[in-house]
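Hi R.,

Here's the input for the adenosine-5'-triphosphate complex you asked about:
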Amino acid sequence: MKLSSVQKQAIEFNGAPTLVVSGAGSGKTTVLTNKVVSLIRNGYDSKRILAITFTNKAADEMKSRLVELTGLPLNQFPWVRTFHSAAFRILRQHCPLLGYKIPLQIYATYQQEKTMKEIIAEMNYDKKYVGAVTAHISKAKNSGNPTAYFDRKPRVSHNILLAEVFNVYEKRLYSANAVDFDNILLKTRDLLRDHKDVRESYQNLFQYVLCDEFQDTNPLQALLTDLWVKNGNLFCVGDDWQSIYRFRGSDIDQFLSFPKKYKNAKIFRLEQNYRSANEIVQTANELIGHNTHKMEKKCFSEKHGGIVKLHKFSDEETEARWVGRKIISLCDMGIPSERIAVLYRTKFCSLSFEKAFRFLEIPYQMMGSKGFFERKEILDMNSYLKASVFQKDNVSFERIINLPKRGIGEKTIRKIADIRTDGMSLQDAVRKVLSERVMSKKIHNALSQLIEALDEIREKKPDDAIREILSRFNYMDYLEKYSKSNSTDFISRKENMDELLHSASKKQTILEFLEEADLIQEDKDDDDDDQSEKPGVKLSTIHASKGLEYYVVFVVGCEEDLFPHWRSKNSDIELEEERRLMYVAITRAEKYLFISCAAYRRGESNRKSRFWYEIEDSLTI
Ligand SMILES: Nc1ncnc2c1ncn2[C@@H]1O[C@H](COP(=O)(O)OP(=O)(O)OP(=O)(O)O)[C@@H](O)[C@H]1O
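And here is the predicted structure with adenosine-5'-triphosphate in place:
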């Protein structure tokens, strides 16, 4: 591929903070990768280049591309990572400076949620607010200043004081010697901010800092970036028109304020779209033109012949059947089904399409299904591994203490928990009752078998450790029963277990394996299996389609209150975010773009989305 002159200029320019303002399909990733290659060719050390990607999958893809382009082996790129993974690499080494012990544990989503649920219950708050409280605490941390956040937003519902829950939650994590995802960033920021020697050692280590998808950074990530960079060696790429993670704490202002923040900043604009036909690019431009909070760029494509069509239907079933039949005719024209995607704003919209596709016998794949590490059998095995290496991890130990069933009921667990003194974990307490032999013989034996197993596997390779647990406790028999004689369900769980064993076999220690597994859970919208290669039409939320491309795209359910979502309607900031989401959907299409709505959905009448009219206007110009 021949790089364009502006791509080349951006790649070759060094020495001042650089922002590459890129349109959709303009080759951001290509530029970022080639920038790293160019730095290496100019004498920079590949081991001292920090290149931040948005997902673990993107980091892996970038590393393999770098191996291909430079001929260097994979281990020469230790700092091509996500924010969380780069920060954790630093934090796990220096955490004693913040009062933690090595090894530091990551509390992954499941453990974080369980801990929060327990705290909300203990504080006698309504459990229906667990999600909202967790989300606010996460946002508070990602703002970089939780106290200021709680001053602005002190409560959820009328009585839940966020700062209070936050304090209890933080204490609990600290006593478990653990950090959650947000703390990985927050504590690394504290570490680098408060320990000059550590900060300088990393500033000296990193010769260049690069950041992909810069439009989706949050204030904390921006603070961290500044702590890593020395001498302005910063190179960021992104598209503010595609910033769609506000709900997770991303802040488009980090991107927009770049030229103000770095006085000598150099800005490049990548405006040529290599993916979509110009008709699609112009439709997208017209739509985003209705946003005010953005950087200007004039996107274009040299490809022509794109088709953009709007279709209105009486209800969702009619819409889905029409989409199905259209897909059949496109496939008859020779378009492979995996190059076709149906995108929607919210998950529930998929149901009518699933039904229609089954009826019409159209193969399809759902994107963004439950993450691999959130599946029951994987959580079970990982909890065994965690309980073995992290004796203070109550969440994991509680999960496995009676799994598979070994006669340890709720009452027994409560009795054991009651003997705990300060700082003692449930596992410590079990060890204590075992040494004092105070339980009945049956319970004593069951608990000692469990503790023996945990001690036995601790030093094993992770795959051997999992095998040991599977065989000691007849776990697969238990899982078969759990699957309630649903053989397909059991087969898929068995496949998951094989996959877990395979990925564990690549690591030498349980700690190494768990660290990777926990960090991978960051990729929330990203599918764990690479479904983009599998045959079948893709059914996906727009969030999960980010970064992907299809020959044909159907954007369905374009109705007011559904898209834009009703929750966003009273705020201009949120409305602009919804419009950016529509922009992302449109720019996934290479050649065909079909936008549709239904007058009735779930029995309720609907108006066309305002985005519909904005697009319609652009088509009639
Ligand atoms: N100079 C070029 N000439 C031809 N094709 C190019 C050039 N640069 C990039 N491309 C191609 O354009 C396509 C889009 O590139 P890429 O996926 O990097 O875009 P992107 O900016 O990350 O897109 P988006 O943000 O919309 O997901 C890719 O297929 C890439 O190979």
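One thing worth noting: The longest helix spans residues 487-504.

Cheers,
M.
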